[in-house]
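Notebook entry, structure prediction.
Reason for the run: the old model in the group folder had no record of what sequence produced it. Starting over properly, with the input documented here first.
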Amino acid sequence: MVDLPNIPDALDRARTAVKDRADLPGMSLFEHLDELRRRLVHSALYLVAGYLVAVIFAKQLTSFMQAPLNQIHIQLNFTHPADLVNLRYIQIPIVGGILLASPFILFQVWLFIAPGLYAREKRYVIPFMAAAILLFLSGAWLGYHFVFPGLLRFLISDLGNSLGIHPLISIEEYTSFFFSLIIGIGATFEMPVIIVFLALFGIVSPSFLWKNFRYAILVIFIIAAIITPTPEITTMCAFAAPMLVLYLVGIAGAWLVHPSRRKKKEKAA
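New structure, fully documented this time:
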């Protein structure tokens, strides 16, 4: 019989973590609502600032986005008169603005949840934010320089030539495809940060993560099969290997921050 991960236990630990923090001295309900309003306003201002910066550099961002397609000498097309307006003032500026503002928005999220954290947990804010930004940029860089160009060559050049079909790619579809893949790979690289964050609150433990390592391998190889630009098994393994390493890094980080380790140190002292 297959031993599935014990998800209910993880949910119970999440409820326990929230309940434990209910006794911490904090703000009243109205103070929480006022703090939430303040953080939302600040986040909106950062989004507007990021959008304006992205609008100013929209031409450079468009060239950056089209570079992988230019490498295989494919010309983009637009099928609706408003497509370029949508690209210039909506799609690229909004996504670019969100990416530019994301570190500041993450900090606003941290300021909102900080009153519900113990003092020992608050010291992790800078490592968490630095790791999250670095890992996302690393994943996006890998996707932009290796995954996306390889995928385009396979889908357009290799398959197109073998079938004798000429590509006609619209700017709308290409932009959506580009953002979904690059941002998706960048988000995948956030795995260690998410694991460590869950371990910090006692929701998952290093033993739980290690026990279910085989399920993690399965999920990682499924993701690698989806994003791999060619059907070759060696290429898929090359993309799965970094994610497996990130999962193991997450386990190591979970061991460092898990409350059980701190309690053992306190008892030993």
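Summary: The mean pLDDT is 81.
The old model has been moved to the deprecated folder.
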